[in-house]
Fold each of these.
Amino acid sequence: MRTLDEKIVKRLSQLLGKEESTIKKDISILANQYANCTPNARAQIYALKYRKTVRRLLDKEDKASLPNIELVKPIQVTQEKRRTETRERIIRFVKYPTSNPFREAHIAEANRAYTYKCYTCVFIICRKIIENLLADILRLKFPEKTKENKELYYDIHHGRTKDFKDLLESLESRKADFEMEKKLVEKIISSVKPFKKEADDKAHSWYHIVKTKAEIDRMEVQSIFDLLYELESRLSSTH
């Protein structure tokens, strides 16, 4: 079983000015969201949250388990470019309170696509966000301590997270286990299903191009995000 490398912990302590015990605890918490990553890979994810990196201390297995994201290095920006960026106004089409850099990146991309009227892209990126939030919620409610739990959101045979359709079916089949949150789960399911159908059409057919913002606005994506955030927040406070 892979364990967290003490050299990485010491390096993070130097970079962040935090106690080693605090760093270990913070990294262990990330196991809920990044179950498929090695402990050292989760340490890299933790470092990225603070715009730091320990990638050079990872081995091949650690790097292979990392999600596809890298630390964005600061670049020198000319005065003219600064003025251009200052004028840029991104429409906040969707929001999802989070300190997770991967979620933040996806939310930012959805808002930029909406701002620049790339509405088909908006459908597809929002579909991806909702799909992954469902997987995270199932993982939070049903930790992978048992094979039965893990199979609700993870395709063991193919070694990947289950498809959107399967995640929705898992949520619906186990909604009674959410007890006080059961009604909230039912509302999420009834809201997500029509959005999934629309987004699937956009993703899988040449003939579906979203030309007007009305097509995406009527799906009320932010309402879906709000429901998912409420459920995830309630589960986080009890686990």
Note: Strands lie at 154-155, 160-161.
Amino acid sequence: MIIFPAVDIKNGQCVRLRQGLENEVTVFSSDPVSMADHWERLGAAWLHLVDLDGAFSGKPVNQGLIKEICDRVRIPVQLGGGIRDADTASAYINSGVARLIIGTMALEDNSLFADLCVEFQGKIGVSLDARDGKLKSRGWVADTGLMVEDVVPLLESLGSSFFVYTDISRDGMQSGVNVTALEKMLGLTSRPVIAAGGVSVLEDIQELYPLAAKGLEGVITGRAIYSGSLDFQMAVKWIEEQKQ
């Protein structure tokens, strides 16, 4: 199971939002590139980047910073936020992003999403951002009218190679993980699933670890590792110990 440190970029800074609300911002660093480097030095196997400005505006905003991060670190990077056309996807892949996480476009333009999955085989996943099972889009501000179970089979058939499942109500709240919802999500797909939202302490990692056998590829954590309630190195070490 992989722990993905989150580097969320807004206004050129590394931040975290509470429940995805644009005005509920905590700034953790004015230098996202150095922060990415920091997590790599502490043992991260992957980085999870989000262009929050892009997610809210619908177009890429922080391409320069994202390319700097890809140039700086040696570990693979996955990216979401504002990727709503093929040109944007291609530019990010060419700048060194290992795989892309598509949200709004996957839900609103199935044909374009399918084309991306063909062009960048194995590099395209879907972000499913839900509150009480109801999917949101456009930076979590728009109701889609869809439930998670309505879209997963279709998106898998169109070529999604993985899913990121976020429980919006717990994101940035450090309130613990929604294991029940995550187990339901794992039951809907044969693709790997990454969980986000609610991880706050080592016990949350320990509670989720058995789900790795059911297709949980990893967890994304941000506020917890920045605030120190979750010791990133200790969590990585604990997971490694389970493999022995």
Note: The longest strand covers residues 2-10.
Amino acid sequence: MKRWAIGLLIAALALTVAGCSAVEDKIGEEVGEGIAGAIVGGDVDVDDGSVTISGEDGDVTVSDGGNEIPDGFPGDFPVYDDADLDSTSSITSGEGTTFYLTLTSGDEPEAVYDWFKAEFEAGGWSIVNDMNMNTGDGMTAIISVEKGDVEGSVTMDSADPGTDFGVIVTEK
């Protein structure tokens, strides 16, 4: 009888511990938020792929969009169709939202560069800066644009094979 009671107690304890994993996760999250908040001098909230830091100057939210274009990304900012989206993120503050995309394409850098130039011109974007350098190792280019309350840039670099490029867009 004593063995049976001990076995039942161990089984009940195991179920309780298994059911507490969500509680343990929540406690760990709150402890981490408290430590991070003490370091940055504000409140820190971690929630499903985003971190919000609240301080005297307002809130800043950093979100990891994974490999999908983040919600709120300006719809008229061109994104190269024949590319794989490697990662995305966004930072939102009182001054607006900045979106970051990293992409890879098998297309040559010159083709990617020409496509962006044509899309910006056709879409009414003002090209603020346009730098295109060809070296013995390949091509590197940066195009910076603006339109209304949106500023953006595309940085392209030769890869083997194709092009690696990043997009930074700030919407105020």
Note: Residues 12 and 162 are 58 Å apart (CA to CA).
